[in-house]
């Protein structure tokens, strides 16, 4: 009977993939560990963030919102879309709040004041934007954001009542020179030095070499680092934070590879860049956890 149920689920999953025009992926890796289902328990939902970065016109954003609103999101997955600041009010008003939340891609480290061009956490809260992405590697690289500055912004956002997607990740050079764990430790330690309450934080592990390159980390590579990060939290923060914290993966996640990544026990979701701009693809990714369970 159980075999029949599983076969039925696989058929449903294949249908869902086909309906989104996605080639079917093999099922072998889906036999991987499902222990994270237990660990996340009823309280933790799989988390899928879409970081639209500096993309979108009035017409493309309208189309994307329509495509997303037409799709379905499983109840065990929290989906958050992060448009540009300019598009945020429109997306916030038009995206189906029953399925999607919205996020900013950054906020300022101080409150309201003379900070020309910056957007405060208070202003985001006032506009009912409850999430913010902080520490993205593009901001670290292009805007010189240091570990300390990112940590200060995390503290400010959390103190203001926002939830934070805190990004960390190593460059290829750091990975290849054996400094990956040292880099990740320093990025996390800076944040841990400033905040006590991790209940409104999602940590996004985004290896810089995988971002926008099409070179996705293998499920095993992602799992290795996520397991390391979970142990880091157990050793340096607390076992309960280590257990409940969602650690998501970002870097060339797409509709084809998301399901295999989602089978890994310490991968609690994704932060998606390029593929989040394609409605049908992003909807497949939003359903990855459900598909991985099938
Ligand atoms: O925030 C998202 C990450 O930078 C991943 O971007 P990507 O999916 O285009 O590689």
UniProtKB/TrEMBL annotation:
Question: Per UniProt, what is one GO molecular function of this protein?
Answer: triose-phosphate isomerase activity
A Pfam family the protein falls into: TIM
The pathway this protein participates in, as annotated, is:
Carbohydrate biosynthesis
- Alphabetically ordered keywords of this record: Isomerase
Q: Which GO terms describe its cellular component?
A: cytosol
Domain of life from the UniProt record: Eukaryota
User: Biological process GO terms, please?
Assistant: gluconeogenesis; glyceraldehyde-3-phosphate biosynthetic process; glycerol catabolic process; glycolytic process
HAMAP family attached to this UniProt entry = TIM_B (MF_00147_B)
Q: Which family does it belong to?
A: Belongs to the triosephosphate isomerase family.
Task: Describe, as the record does, how this protein assembles with itself and its partners.
Answer: Homodimer.
**What protein name is recorded for this chain?**
Triosephosphate isomerase
